[in-house]
Amino acid sequence: MTDNKRLRVGLVDSDVCKRCGSCSETSLHALRNCNVVKPLWQKLVNNTAQPVFFNLNNLQEWVNFNLQNKIGMNPNLPWGSMFGTACWMIWKQRNDWIFNDKKDEANSLMKPIELNVMNWLKSAKLNSSRGILYHESFVTWKPTMEGWIKVNTDGSYNHCTKKMSCGAVIRNDKGLEMAWKYGMKKVTMETDSIEALDFAQDLYDKNHPLRYLAEKIEEYKDRNWQVVFKHTFRETNRVADFLAKYARNRSYEDCLLSSPPDECIELVKNDAQGLGFWRV
Fold it and tell me: What are the TM regions of this chain, as residue ranges (predicted)?
């Protein structure tokens, strides 16, 4: 979380960037505009594209511009992979600077970024020769069809405290028991757990100790409504993942939130705007 967001939720007293000390640390500042970071991008992005690259002031537009255009200085390396790797390494270096007092310049990431992408390309080529094909895909949370609502679910378990919890978020185009209670008759249930999905679709060992839960799910599925179960990637299930962890630290057994917690608002906005991730 950037200091600009941390300030909004009262975690810090100032949002000034701890690396350059001159500006508010927004997401764009941390990843692109900071004086510590900018020289790296000037080496990675071709000169023709730099005016647009450095002047897009909306994070989503900036990300989309990079994912939709080939603007790398090195034409032999896919820019989508270069861009994603660079952002990840810049953020990791930023955290090391702030939390571990490792004050390295972003320029030092130039070679590691290229090597990381080249190694991935070699691995993909090797596996392709063995008949194993990989491709990049852009994954994002997708709204439902008109008239349907979508329930994203996730669970959380802390091995130290032995606490277990689950979270769900209900959204439409504009949990089963809860959806039924509020009169929702067309429901898409999404989870990133293949095991949970199999359980809900009656694909489980009938001697399973939790089979009573599957039987309860079957009871709900047989009611007068339409319910579809789907798998989703972890990257597109971040709101439910947050709520599952959020619930683990609360004392009540269950709770219905009419609006998202402050720390979760940005994740909800990202889903609504279609902000996603590249996944191999």
Answer: none
